[in-house]
Amino acid sequence: MKKAEINSTEIARLAGVSRSTVSRVINNYPNVPAETREKVMKVIRQYNYYPNMSAQVLAGKKTRTIGLFLIDAGHVSSDILTNMLISSVIENASAYGYYVLTNIIRNTQDQDAVRSVKEIFYQRRIDGGIFIGAANHEPLIEELIAEGFMIGIVDQHLPGRTEPNRIVANFDNDRGMELAIDYLAGLGHSKIGVINGDMKRQSGPSKYEGYLKAMAKRGFEVRPEWVLPGDFHQEAGYQAIQKLLQSASSLPTAIIAANDSVAFGAIQALHENGLSVPRDISVIGFDDHALSRMHQPPLTTIRVDFMHMMNRLTGALIKKIEQGADRFEPFTIGCELVVRDSCRPL
Amino acid sequence: MKKAEINSTEIARLAGVSRSTVSRVINNYPNVPAETREKVMKVIRQYNYYPNMSAQVLAGKKTRTIGLFLIDAGHVSSDILTNMLISSVIENASAYGYYVLTNIIRNTQDQDAVRSVKEIFYQRRIDGGIFIGAANHEPLIEELIAEGFMIGIVDQHLPGRTEPNRIVANFDNDRGMELAIDYLAGLGHSKIGVINGDMKRQSGPSKYEGYLKAMAKRGFEVRPEWVLPGDFHQEAGYQAIQKLLQSASSLPTAIIAANDSVAFGAIQALHENGLSVPRDISVIGFDDHALSRMHQPPLTTIRVDFMHMMNRLTGALIKKIEQGADRFEPFTIGCELVVRDSCRPL
DNA sequence: CTGAAAGCGCTTACAG
DNA sequence: CTGAAAGCGCTTACAG
Fold first, then answer.
1. What is the pTM of this model?
2. Which residue range is the domain that position A167 belongs to?
3. Which residues in chain B touch residue A110, judged by CB atoms under 8 angstroms apart?
4. Are A82 and A116 in the same domain?
5. What pLDDT digit, counting tens, does each position of A263-291 carry?
6. Residue B156 CB burial class (10 angstroms; 0-12, 13-18, ≥19)
7. Chain A 34-53 residues in 7 Å CB range of strand C
8. Distance, in angstroms, between A125 CA and closest chain B CA?
């Protein structure tokens, strides 16, 4: 049923040249006269010939494919933010003529999952990979970097690890927290609590440290009972507030959530307990999630430009793939305050 | 810097067997004694050996990769629904041990875009592909099917085209429209307008025909000025309402939108023109978009299970890839009414 | 400017 | 049960 595949031998025969010349035409070698090139191209076009990718790669070409690895215990299909990251990488890579092989890893403790990621690299399915959502120190990633693979990582800070094939992208969480606290201070708040993110990931402790630093700068008291453990999911925000309301001797007037999803959960819990946002308590998020502006109340948050980050990270990875990794080049993306209606002046 | 790659020759040498035997172990041939197998496996594990994928494919193995092609003129990164489809296919394929190469096509008229899609197939990067968002008759897809590639298509109806390598998935739009109109009729509505979707896609005319059929069944009059052209984007809903309000001699009491995004746009336009939903006019959507339940007012809609569809379609495609395509097997996924607050009894 | 030949790393009839 | 060998379809020094 399937037509016989046409290959370079056949093209060579039809064009009256050798396979070497066909290959030179395909790969744009300069030492092919225009006339010969055109003669070969004509046959190529006529027969709809595309060189077999596996043969090209086996002979030494790049795959022009990058791997995208999302680490998330949740059901990614329904997470808007993660989904946006996926498309963002695809679109950026596509602009460079690269393809994206996307993978979702539920649990980095799962040996099968780890094996399957390694397989993709060792099999040479891809030229490099991008990891999103991993712990700050993830053995799998460290092994791949040690093996010399080109790896882009969102959200990592590992002092001293400056291999040239490690590309690191972070948001300026310090600055974000400072913006949030400056804004709240301007509204008259000084009793400010925080719901922490996942402390295994770099952005968890980094946001918390930013909070501590900004609170100290203002001379605001950090009350341990207002520092609530959590992670980056909505449910954690909900639970954090339940805990706060049950056990705290008094309440803060404002709370900064590790991200907007956490803020949604927190606000839900506050509402269920008869507290109104922002009347009784102000809440500020982090990310500027697609839903934040549609939320009730519209969420004041620290906007972070994920698309811009993925754009730079994808570009940097592809550059290293094509030009080689000469030195470690981490970068940081800024953030800005977006004022909506979830905070009120005191 | 990069370690020398280990290959099957090396593994064979270390295990004291031939490359043939190493290959038989890797491919689980039955005629290898447990003892030999274990001896080889030990070396494979010890040296972290994974067979080179390009070599395997060149020697006749499958790529175990499927292509996912999203056709959408909009900026996909921000479209929640499309993003959900992407993750859904990835997760389903992954369960079968397949990888997904995702591509976004802005315009099927763009020759470069078309060429790049063909290239992926002809280069043998993938074993098959899934197309979402294409016109009912898309020459690119028809060419690929004619070439014998395994193709899954969402939203297509081409009578007589029943090639075994064509896999077609549709929603039951007829039934969806019937549910919507039955519900509205139950609330006392009979003056029901419709905002059509993209008529080049199968779901456009198919929803419209469902509307006509259900209206006829009830004996409700179809007023041409209440049949509004559009497409599947929010802006189209907005424009359709603007046009309706400017030119119609009287207004319907209810409007069915081609999908929820269109409904959002329609409601926005109604509000901007001082009309309240559902007080002045009832609106019903289609899809049950992730935002529909958070919308103001929460949107009544016809829910359609995209995940289920992608699940079946991905499974069917992989089955055909592995077992061969023997016959044409289209399928249809049902839908259900989700009542929220955007319609009111008359 | 161009062709013959080696080589990339596998799989799989074939022969024993 | 197992090895030697052909073959998959390219690319790229090498030699001319």
1. 0.90
2. 65-171+307-333
3. none
4. yes
5. 999 999 999 999 999 999 999 999 999 88
6. buried
7. 36
8. 6
